[in-house]
Amino acid sequence: MEAQRKPLGSKVYFLSCVRPFTGADESTVRQRSDMNSHGPVTDTSLLDIRCGKDASTAFAPGILSVAAGQSLGFVVDPTIQHPGPALAYLAKVPAGKTAANWDGSGAVWFKVWEQGPTALNSNGGNWPSSGLTKLSFTIPKATPSGDYLARIEHIGLHSAGSKNGAQFYLSCGQITVTGGGSGTPGPLVSFPGAYSATDPGILIQIYYPVPTSYTIPGPKVWTG
Question: What is the pTM of this model?
Fold first, then answer.
């Protein structure tokens, strides 16, 4: 069946980091099997780190159309409650597949946005995403046209002082980029594979002793 392709229009693109948001269009979002809970992924070696629990092949029927250079917004339900970074990745769908039938496997993901702390202190730091119900970023203008998976993520660091203590809240949506450029996105990483449980931005004590710096996990941001 041909996927339903939808324009972005004036509505905020819906990707739930935790569970469905009342009244939002879910037809372009891969639904996690635990979508009605607030449970995170905690093991970076699991396939669930790609799109959420059992969501890599939970293909949605729709594909959202987004112009290169346009802002893409993600609704979060409930608010972001834990200290930690926010990140966004894209993965180009290979020839012969669409965003509605591809699982996102391989070294295909590139980071397009990240948001770290504005300060580090004994309260866990100051994080711009705290308390928000929406995260937004811009699709780089040089992004080639075509279908992509979009991956949104918030990493809770409140329990990250022990291995597998960091909490990953994430989701994947299905988009097609229009009016794109001729850029070469990268570095390319895989999920699982991009993160290790012992990465300095994942295994970290954010309260005491207060860290002097913070390294956001994953590759460098591709700005186009």
Answer: 0.91
